[in-house]
Recover the amino acids of this structure.
């Protein structure tokens, strides 16, 4: 098999297993390799770890819903409203696919490339204008994304600590409004 064929086979096999099982923790690297028809070592060779491969496969599954985020990013509403709608929709997608996304959060937060903040950085800059430096805008974008991931992952503890249930859409939406006010000084 060609390099791209092996990689694609591993990704497709992982997507299929995730679609069937809905829980990445129950899927083993051996199952993925068997489903793809490749040697087990190919997972680490091409993706560095099973977690990296699973994270990529979850991203593939979520790509369809990502179109909703593109529509928001390109909309003509105010920058603050656009950023709020983007974060709310992103959290809705995350909650809708909780069984798939929750197990990937530790990898994304601790080992994965910092990618998601780049999606909201232009909106953060628009909201802030020239009041803050490039570095400050990047920090705010990172805070918004990483905090969102962390409260999703630790939703039970976050509920105990704050009384905010992020699984409740109204409470989650209000939380993002509050976070944006705090970080953007609105």
């Amino acid at each position: 098999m060609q390099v791209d064929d092996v990689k694609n086979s591993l990704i497709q096999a992982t997507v299929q297993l995730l679609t069937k099982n809905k829980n990445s923790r129950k899927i083993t690297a051996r199952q993925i390799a068997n489903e793809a028809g490749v040697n087990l070592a190919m997972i680490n060779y091409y993706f560095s770890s099973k977690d990296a491969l699973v994270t990529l496969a979850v991203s593939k599954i979520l790509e369809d819903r990502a179109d909703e985020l593109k529509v928001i990013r390109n909309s003509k509403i105010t920058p603050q409203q656009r950023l709020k709608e983007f974060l709310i929709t992103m959290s809705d997608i995350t909650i809708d696919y909780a069984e798939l996304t929750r197990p990937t959060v530790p990898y994304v937060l601790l080992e994965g490339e910092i990618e998601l903040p780049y999606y909201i950085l232009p909106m953060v800059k628009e909201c802030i204008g020239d009041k803050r430096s490039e570095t400050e805008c990047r920090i705010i974008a990172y805070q918004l994304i990483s905090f969102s991931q962390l409260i999703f992952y630790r939703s039970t503890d976050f509920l105990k600590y704050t009384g905010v249930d992020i699984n409740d859409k109204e409470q989650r939406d209000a939380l993002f409004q509050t976070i944006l006010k705090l970080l953007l000084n609105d």
Q: What stands out?
A: The longest helix spans residues 50-73. DSSP finds eleven helices and no strands in the chain.
